[in-house]
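Q: I'm building a small set of examples for a reading group on sequence design. Run inverse folding on the following structure and report the sequence directly after it, with nothing in between.
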């Protein structure tokens, strides 16, 4: 009798575990997979990683499959070749494709960052840095036509510096290799995103002396895009994705840099909480992140001004042609 009771209890426990396990499996199988390609993996996109780590995408019924483009051109290629459903990249990439006349061109449906995220790093300490210090120097920039390079050129021009006359720009180095080239004694300055800028500081190889973000103004620097066809066929997915991003933006806006660092640390295990906190505070202090996913029209026009001044815009693109506002306007925090 005792054996029978023990057996019954054991079987009951196993049944409960089976139900719980199958429930978990069922929940996971019900998630809709979304292939997201991000231009680079950087603390610059902290609200996105908060949304991932806090489970905001799963709350919306989405499972995110991440890939990294290592450049806006590559992320755009992934999008239009159907290797990605959604891409996080620079607005300029979408403008270029639109002006090429592609029929199913990608459209912007949400904005993540509102300032450039790179910093000017000097080989020397310059506590009283002035842009005129660059005269007679060399600077490692970005890919020609890419937004990091265009913003850099815009800032230099606004500070009355002429490339080729006042300073030399080195822009034939791959994005992921610029810091290594700088450490290898190439250039007097380099323009770097985080966490690379802080890593150069921590190693003693460089010193952050200026922010390209504060110098260039508010622009839709990094946005989410999908092809028109994908949006038309999957409006619910786009809305749920936008909702999750909005939750991430709101969470970042209402929490401290250290709290954010602790949440996104699993995305940057090569770093540490103190370093991440320093980086996040640097971004927070310059108002880098949007507090909602709506795409700013004034910033959209400014980004085209920057492209025009850089000689990279064949014609201006109407805001309503490439920006879909429905999803960001309907985004809500549940």
């Amino acid at each position: 009798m005792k054996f029978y009771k023990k057996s019954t209890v054991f079987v009951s426990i196993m049944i409960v575990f089976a139900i719980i396990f199958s429930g978990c499996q069922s929940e996971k199988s019900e998630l809709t997979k979304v292939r997201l390609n991000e231009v680079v993996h950087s603390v610059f996109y902290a609200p996105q990683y908060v949304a991932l780590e806090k489970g905001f995408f799963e709350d919306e019924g989405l499972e995110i499959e991440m890939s990294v483009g290592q450049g806006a051109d590559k992320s755009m290629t992934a999008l239009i070749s159907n290797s990605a459903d959604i891409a996080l990249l620079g607005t300029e990439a979408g403008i270029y494709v639109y002006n090429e006349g592609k029929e199913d061109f990608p459209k912007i449906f949400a904005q993540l960052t509102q300032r450039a995220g790179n910093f000017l790093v000097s080989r020397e300490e310059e506590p009283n840095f002035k842009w005129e210090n660059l005269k007679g120097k060399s600077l490692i920039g970005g890919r020609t036509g890419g937004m990091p390079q265009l913003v850099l050129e815009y800032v230099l021009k606004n500070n009355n510096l002429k490339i080729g006359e006042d300073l030399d720009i080195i822009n034939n180095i791959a994005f992921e290799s610029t810091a290594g080239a700088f450490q290898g004694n190439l250039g007097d300055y380099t323009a770097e995103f985080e966490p690379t800028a802080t890593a150069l500081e921590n190693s003693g190889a460089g010193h952050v002396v200026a922010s390209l973000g504060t110098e260039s103004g508010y622009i839709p620097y990094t946005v989410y895009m999908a092809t028109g066809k994908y949006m038309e066929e999957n409006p619910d997915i786009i809305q749920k994705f936008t909702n999750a991003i909005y939750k991430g933006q709101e969470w970042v806006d209402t929490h401290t840099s250290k709290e954010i660092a602790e949440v996104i640390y699993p995305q940057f295990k090569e770093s540490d909480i103190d370093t991440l906190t320093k980086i996040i505070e640097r971004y927070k202090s310059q108002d880098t992140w949007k507090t909602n996913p709506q795409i700013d029209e004034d910033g959209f026009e400014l980004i085209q001004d920057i492209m025009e001044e850089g000689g990279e815009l064949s014609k201006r693109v109407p805001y309503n042609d490439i920006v879909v506002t429905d999803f960001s306007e309907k985004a809500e925090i549940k």
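The domain at 33-115+219-330 is CATH 3.40.190.10 (D-Maltodextrin-Binding Protein; domain 2).
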